[in-house]
Structure formats: structure tokens, C-alpha cells
Specification:
The protein is α+β, with helices and mostly antiparallel strands and 267 residues long. It has helices spanning 4-52, 60-83, 88-104, 106-121, 161-166, 192-205, 240-257; strands at 129-132, 135-142, 146-151, 156-160, 170-171, 177-186, 216-223, 226-236. The chain is built from seven helices and eight strands. Strands 4-3-2-1-5 form a five-stranded antiparallel β-sheet. Helix 1 runs antiparallel to helix 2 (60-83).
């Protein structure tokens, strides 16, 4: 059985604690609920703002969650400080864990940061044809840590995002059009004007050649055994290789039908 003196001392300690720490405790709890409510409002606003700014859909929930978690951690630590809970040991512990995790995951974190930059700055998007890390192909997927490129011979190449953000990327389809360059050598006995007529006819008849920018045809090199004629024409970026192969085949047939002898052709 508890005697009257013990109960009195117990209530006195509770009373002293309420007088000494009660206001801070009430303030801390109030700030906790208000802070959680404000963070919830901020979450809704953040989602709406990112949607309006056309932020990548795969990045929006991740960034929102990351910001919300960080704000909640700051809120809890602030409330603990207001209530009077000593954070010295906790701060050292969290700092040590953070340093260890950072060292262990340095490569992963670099890929993550690079993925965020790629999704925000958009140097390329899904569907673009790019050349990166010695690989040429179509971007099939952009993830937080890596990007998947499908090469034109149907290989799936997984490239870490850190490699894409720190090195040269050639986006060969972003502009929508590409220049097709062709150079052929002829003997001096073949009239240049005849070649120009055949080249122009081939371009005019080939439906995948664009009218603008304008084509360019001219003599690129003069040699002892003949001269080279270069032609620059513009085609759509997507399907570039198929267009090149078909056009070169048609050009060769037109030159042959026009009586123009190409190097290596039998007399």
C-alpha cells in the first residue's frame, strides 16, 4: 500500500513537471499537428505544380515523397528540441549512419542524381535515337538509376545514368530531320551536268526526300583519276538508315540507266 506521503510526492513531481515542461510539451504537440497538416497541403500543391510544369510522371511521386519525408524529419526533430529532448547522441548517430551509407552507395547515389537531372532537363526522351557509350539506338525507358536503349540490331543496352549525364550524348532525332551525305567518284570523261540532272531527278522522284532545307550538289574533290561529286539532301530522322539504303539503290539504278559508268563497272 502506498502511504499518503509517497502519493503526495508523486503528485508534486507531476505538478512541477507540468509547470516546468507542460507549456513546451503542449507547444511541441500543437506544432506537430499543425506541421503535419501544412506538409499535407504542400504535398498536394507540389503534385499540382509538377503536373503543370510537365515533370516526368515517373519522377513526380518520387520527388514528392522525398520532399515530404525530409520535411517530416525536420518537423519531428524540431518538436523534440522544443519539448526538451536532448538530440546530441541522436544527431551523432544519424550523421554516422549517413556518412557510412553515402560511402557505400556513392555510385548508386550518383546514378540517382543523374537520373533526376535527365528527367528534369530532358536532353533526350523516350523514343529518341541517340548515340551514347558507343551504342546507337532508340531510348526505350528512362529509369531513376539507368536508361534502356534498344540498338538497331535489337539488343537492349542498360546504361547507368551517371554515364549519360557526365559524357557526350548525340541525339540524332531531336531536330526531326537529318542530312544524308553521298559522295561518288566519276571519271573526267563523264559530263558533270549529266550527273547533276540524274541526281536531281532521283531526289525529285524519291518521296522520302524533303524539299527544305534545300539540297546541295557539287564537286567535292579533284583527283588524277577523276573527280568526286558530293550531294547533301535532307530526310526525316526516324528511319534514316532505311531511307539511305533505298535512296542509294535508286541513285545507282538511275546512273546506270542514264549511261553513267561508275568505278568498277564493266565496260
Amino acid at each position: 500500500m502506498l502511504d499518503t506521503e509517497t502519493v503526495t510526492r508523486f503528485y508534486d513531481k507531476i505538478y512541477d513537471w507540468l509547470i516546468d515542461r507542460g507549456p513546451a510539451f503542449i507547444l511541441g504537440v500543437s506544432l506537430l499537428f499543425i506541421g503535419l497538416w501544412l506538409i499535407k497541403l504542400f504535398s498536394r500543391w507540389s503534385n499540382s505544380a509538377m503536373t503543370k510544369r510537365a515533370v516526368n510522371p515517373s519522377l513526380t511521386p518520387f520527388l514528392t515523397s522525398l520532399i515530404i519525408i525530409a520535411l517530416r524529419i525536420v518537423l519531428v526533430l524540431s518538436v523534440m528540441q522544443i519539448i526538451g529532448i536532448q538530440l546530441t547522441f541522436l544527431t551523432v548517430l544519424v550523421g554516422g549512419i549517413g556518412v557510412a551509407a553515402g560511402l557505400a552507395l556513392s555510385g548508386t547515389l550518383q546514378n540517382f542524381a543523374s537520373g533526376v537531372l535527365i528527367l528534369l532537363l530532358k536532353p533526350f526522351v523516350v523514343g529518341d535515337n541517340i548515340i551514347a557509350q558507343g551504342q546507337e539506338g532508340t531510348v526505350k525507358s528512362i529509369q531513376i538509376f539507368y536508361t534502356i536503349v534498344r540498338t538497331f540490331d535489337n539488343r537492349s543496352v542498360v546504361i547507368p545514368n551517371s554515364k549519360l549525364s557526365n559524357e557526350v550524348i548525340i541525339n540524332i532525332s531531336k531536330e526531326g530531320v537529318r542530312r544524308l551525305d553521298i559522295e561518288i567518284k566519276f571519271s573526267y570523261g563523264i559530263d558533270f551536268e549529266q550527273i547533276v540532272q540524274i541526281f536531281n531527278k532521283t531526289v525529285d522522284d524519291f518521296k522520302r526526300c524533303l524539299k527544305t532545307p534545300e539540297r546541295r550538289i557539287g564537286v567535292s574533290t579533284l583527283e588524277d583519276s577523276g573527280y568526286k561529286v558530293a550531294m547533301n539532301i535532307w530526310v526525316k530522322a526516324h528511319g534514316f538508315m532505311d531511307t539511305k539504303l533505298s535512296f542509294q539503290q535508286q541513285l545507282m539504278e538511275n546512273l546506270k540507266n542514264g549511261g553513267v559508268k561508275l568505278p568498277g563497272m564493266p565496260d
